[in-house]
Inverse folding.
């Protein structure tokens, strides 16, 4: 048996467990998750974090078309909790983010899906204000990115149950 034939055999054997479990790709052609592209109109949260969240979600799902079928309301809450590490004034901050999602039908106004997602990110504060502010901004960007990914994945993975 040649090396090429062995590789093909290994590929087939590796795919067998997935075939038996009913696995289908989330964004395969014709899937409910793929149908969400340009069909979700997200609300604008008027803050830098809210704008970054909207930008990330529209990058993932595309700008909504005029007759988008769903309105998605995302309520974003970010809290900052500090923990003093030592007597020199260093603090470790934990940013906790919460995104409450509601998907509404634009036709009926009914709530089709609701969930609350949470993520965290951290940064260290020092006596240097400029460095601390830069660290906080970077942590907020990471946190908003994590929340955007979590929201997108939750919408895509549950689309089959509510996006009809």
């Amino acid at each position: 048996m040649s090396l090429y034939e062995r590789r093909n055999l290994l590929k087939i054997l590796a795919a067998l467990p997935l075939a038996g479990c009913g696995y289908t790709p989330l964004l395969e052609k014709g899937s409910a998750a793929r149908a969400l592209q340009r069909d979700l109109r997200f609300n604008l949260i008027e803050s830098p974090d809210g704008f970054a969240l909207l930008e990330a979600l529209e990058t993932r799902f595309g700008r909504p078309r005029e007759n988008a079928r769903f309105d998605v309301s995302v309520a974003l809450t970010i809290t900052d909790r500090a923990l003093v590490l030592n007597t020199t004034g260093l603090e470790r901050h934990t940013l906790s983010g919460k995104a409450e999602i509601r998907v509404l039908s634009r036709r009926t106004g009914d709530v089709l899906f609701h969930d609350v997602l949470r993520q965290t990110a951290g940064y260290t504060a020092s006596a240097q204000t400029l460095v601390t502010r830069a660290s906080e901004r970077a942590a907020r960007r990471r946190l908003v990115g994590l929340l955007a990914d979590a929201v997108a994945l939750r919408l895509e993975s549950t689309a089959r149950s509510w996006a009809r």
Observations:
- The helical segments are 3-20, 48-61, 129-162.
- The domain at 36-162 is CATH 3.30.160.150 (Double Stranded RNA Binding Domain).
- DSSP finds three helices and four strands in the chain.
